[in-house]
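Lab notes, practical 5.
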Amino acid sequence: MKKTKFFLGLGVILVSILMTSISFTYAIHDTSVSETVKKTIESFKKYEIPVIESTKNYSSSMIITQKGKVYINNGKIVSITGTDLIVSTWGIKFSIDAGQVIILPANTTFSNINVGDKVNINGTVNSITGTIIAEKIHTLSETTKIMDELRAEINKMLEQLKTLQKRLEEISGN
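Output from the prediction step:
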């Protein structure tokens, strides 16, 4: 849901920039330049720049199906011993056997996983030991870093848009 809002906001910004560029290009070739500029300024004044929300604070969850399939979302690694992990979700610690695991995103290895990292895990519960045999581990820490960098760049662009809005208001005399 939050990713959808993020990309929707990004889409709105990009469309706004495109439409503004088209408006100015049209204005340059039109005899009524001032009228076109006024319309563009008015549309900019009405446009409310969105706030980009953080994705860092999603709560964790865990599902165990009737067939013993396990899905841990946003679990926190609290210890690593060899290929065994202890992962916490809602204060409950689970033993994870990650000996035969696929690690995502691509090009991530087990050595990239650290205590404190947030992870999504798909696996199966061993009905005798209660250990979760991990099939896939998706590390969220690297994804979070990338998202933070993108969010920072988008926020810079939003600030630039706000500055442009103010300049346009000053030019139009409003």
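Observations recorded by the TA: The mean pLDDT is 76. Residues 2-55+152-172 form one domain.
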